Amino acid sequence: MSVTEKTPRSENELRIIHPSPSILASPISFYRNIVHNKSMIGNFIRRDVRLRYRNSLLGYIWTVLHPLLLAAVYYFVFTIIADTEEELYPIWVLIGVITWQFFARSLNGSITSITRNVSMIKLIYFPREIFALTTVGSNAIITGFSLLVLIPFIIYYELPIGLHYFWLLAGLSISAVIALGIGLLLAPLNAVHGDIAHLFQFITKAGFFLSPVMWTLRMIPASKSEMLDYIFLNPMVVPLEMMRCGVDGSVFQIELAWVAYSIGFALASLLLGVIVFIQTESKAVKYL
Amino acid sequence: MTTIIDIDNMSVTFPLSRPGWNSIKRKITTITTGKELKPLQRTVLSGISLEIKQGEVLGIIGRNGSGKSTLLRAISGIYRPSDGIVKSRGQIFLLAGIRIGFTGNLTGRENAYLYGSILGHSRARLDELMPSIIEFSELEEFIDMPLRTYSSGMTARLGFSVATAVQPEILLIDEVLSVGDQEFKERSKERILELVADAGTVVIVSHSFGLLKNICDRIVLLEDGCIKDVGEPAHVIEVYHGRAESSLLSVEDSE
After folding, report:
1. Is this complex scored with an ipTM above 0.90?
2. Checking CA distances to A270, which of A187, A286, B136, B216 falls within 20 to 30 Å?
3. Shortest Cα distance from A95 to chain B (angstroms)?
4. How far apart are CA B25 and CA B190, in angstroms?
């Protein structure tokens, strides 16, 4: 059989397996593993996206329908019962739900990335961080599709169209990095103790209410503004607000220090997650 | 000849119990009483040293639980050694499971692309390989139907065709695979023998001593996770049956 092109892994380089990988080399090998396995990552993401709705009647429509229905429920609760006066409330809650769903699915999916793929892990070796990466990747693509549901709202509310869409990318990126970082950090531990996945099922549910998903910072009464300092400790507050500015074109007015905190939290959790994952996954898979 | 796989004093252990309250209690007992408690782990392989040369066909034999499969998995990277070092040069392919990542709701073709990319082939390479994969699997028009509609034999044929589509540099085989009907079994055996003949380096775990005698340059006999003997196939098989003395020392001298 003729080999017309070089497959990434056929490089004739020396591969050395030590009892424990070096801590400093972990981020580098993480990066290299992504570059070397682009084709596999792409195929996994394609599979996940295809499978998500393949055996349902409405198919892709569910990506849009689910957040829409949820948003309708919150709209009912807040606008009709609690009588919120914000005109843009429906669109805020919709984008909040979409963003949080992306975050929760990516995080819970990454945490269970080792335990969900036991059969594959035992039969073939490839860098196992790919499972978490593809989970976040496929959720990002599905979220991209569901953001299209906002178009009719943007037209109806006559919202400005322009460069502020950049905030959507920023908000999604920060959420993705936090989810991937914490997911990688905890996936090996979850392979040893399945309690972690249960705990985070709860945390992502509680976080839904504790983060500005169905409320916004603007809805906090002035008398309770001292609470803001605590609210901002939640690193998801900044990306959620970014997503809202990305849609309604309003000025992003969170203090720079909190933005830096959120981005720093994301990057630090990714770095820590990568190091811990690469250091411990080989021990964790022996519990499978 | 260059060494392709170099295993140096490798051990692989598996933990027996999950870390938890018990292990904390044990730690406290160790610290307070100074008693060394026996580690809660099972040593599956210990002190394995093995050099495999380019072009060599190495057989591994041993009773159930002697660590044959774990040795292959340690070479391929699935299990990291607890001690010692494994060095290898070249693309390793472990022929063990042949339907990795298979998903019922994807078509045969989609599954073939996914499995192929897991094996490390690029999309362009798979585009090239796909006609021969479909031909060897004999799936014809079924290739674009969902995998869940396949019979188990058809699934196995597809998996086998993808797995063996490309000649790897280092081929690790865990037991001889028998899939599909009688006719396909013959063809798959032929294909494996072809792969073995052309592969750079082969490590094969099997219980069919007749096959091993024919294709292997050397055989390793594992017993309780240690190498009991290594060398001339016929002789090591005799040792396995208890009809000859281990020649471990004399073989190492002659190298």
Report:
1. no
2. A286
3. 31
4. 56
